[in-house]
Amino acid sequence: MRRVSRIAVAGVATAALAVTVSACGGSSSESTGGNGKSKGVGLAYDVGGKGDQSFNDAAYAGFQKAEKDFGVSGQDVEPQDGESDADKVQRLETLARSGYNPVIGVGFAYAPAVKEVAAKFPKVSFGIIDDDQDKASNVADMVFHEEESSYLAGVAAASVTKKNHIGFVGGVDVPLIHKFQAGFVQGAKSVNPKIKVESQYLTQTAQEGGFSSPDKGEAAADGQISAGADVIYAAAGLSGQGVIKSAAGHKVWAIGVDSDQYSQSALAQYKNYILTSALKNVEGAVYDLAKSVIKDKKPLSGVVRGSLANGGVGLADSNPVFKNNATLQAAIKKAEDGIKNGSITVKTS
Description:
By secondary structure, the protein is α/β, with parallel strands linked by helices. It has ten helices and twelve strands. It has helices at residues 55-70, 85-97, 111-120, 146-160, 175-191, 214-226, 240-250, 282-294, 320-323, 326-341; strands at 42-44, 75-77, 103-106, 126-129, 139-144, 165-172, 196-203, 231-235, 253-258, 274-280, 302-306, 313-315. The strands form two sheets. A six-stranded parallel beta sheet has the order 2-1-3-4-5-11, sandwiched between helices. α3 links the parallel β3 (103-106) and β4 (126-129). α1 (55-70) runs parallel beside α8 (282-294) and α2 (85-97) runs parallel beside α3. The longest helix has 17 residues, at 175-191. The protein starts with 41 loop residues before the first strand and ends in an 8-residue tail after the last helix. Mean pLDDT is 89; it is low at 1-36.
């Protein structure tokens, strides 16, 4: 049985849709979106864009499901290299003005833009994934206990390593990714307090490509494997593909993130070396917000947090080697129960 069965990630789209960006100006009352009706979901991707087999593709899966179930035609928009907050503002304004509702920014980098644009379009619902700072009544802050699924990933890594030496690769050195690292290290040390954990962040800022550079991920994993690690966990978006490639090349385990990367067609050549993936239900978050606006007419707002207890995070068990390892599954079940009943408090930094 799948632990987080709601997370079914879509494949890479063959062509990216585009929004024609209009000039700024005008009020929300002049826009199609100002009347509160919706012609579909407006989705703006984070760095790495659609096709990352991870975070953005999970959002796209929720977007596609909403289109199908609610009979609407949404609009999804790719990021641009080196873009500014002003570019994000313009992108979200264009979606709202064009009649898309809800409008969702995928990733914490959209926080300033969502705050600004939501104030201009009070009758449009906005969502932001991975940030909970905006408390506006028309904004849903869709966040997750990533540290909990990462703790389980750490338990898995420590349970299968043959060298008592594992690694973590974070895309960007920011508090969100610190949660992944903290949970992973704590989970691993719960199995073996003396286990050695290599840790590396690819860049200090997203603008430097930490979430969008598979070559950086591959180089980092090569270094950790050369140092002795035989299980590598990456929380690095598109860059994680390089980590998985490196792990497969060295015939060691990789642990994926956000989406079930074992099941991704673009990663099929590496799947035998993807032990599991630490999931968070970005797909469900996008879908649930769309449903609340388009079908239920009761838009979600405020903090909406996915946890192990509510199925918002978990581990994928698509790989039979992982699923059929009784000792490993028992260790993960024990950790799951401890987190859910409060006997285990997972660190976030």
